[in-house]
Design a protein that fits this description.
Elements: H1 4-102, H2 104-107, H3 111-127
Helix pairs in contact: 1-3
């Protein structure tokens, strides 16, 4: 085989090689651990970003929904108010025509006079 001194050197070289391999393995484990930690941090950061975006967007959507409902409610109220005003105006016109029909103009058959009276009542209704 060889001389005993060479064997000692070989054993030392093997021992230092094994130590270096352990050091390399430890460094690899450290790199892998750091990579996994970075990956976990990135996942947590994504989850937090998604949560904060959802929180902000839900607030914005809620505010928009309330605003849309208020607008719808105001439009509905305005529609019914205008319909109520039109109904009152129609009632006034009808009552004016009925009052005119009771008068002597319609008894004599003067439809033009009745129309003038109706137009006057309509003008009064618009003025109110």
């Amino acid at each position: 085989m060889g001389c005993p001194e060479r064997l000692g050197e070989t054993a030392v070289a093997l021992a230092t090689g094994a130590q270096r391999a352990k050091d390399v393995d430890a460094q690899l484990l450290l790199v892998v651990a750091n990579y996994r930690i970075a990956k976990i941090r990135k996942s947590v950061r994504r989850i937090l970003d998604r949560f904060s975006r959802e929180h902000v967007l839900s607030g914005v959507l809620g505010a928009w929904q309330h605003m849309a409902e208020d607008t719808r409610k105001l439009r509905r109220e305005a529609l019914f108010d205008s319909m109520t005003c039109q109904l009152r105006s129609a009632k006034r016109r009808c009552s004016g025509i009925e009052r005119g029909q009771r008068g002597e103009f319609l008894r004599k058959g003067h439809s033009r006079c009745a129309f003038v009276a109706w137009r006057g009542a309509a003008g009064l209704a618009r003025a109110r």
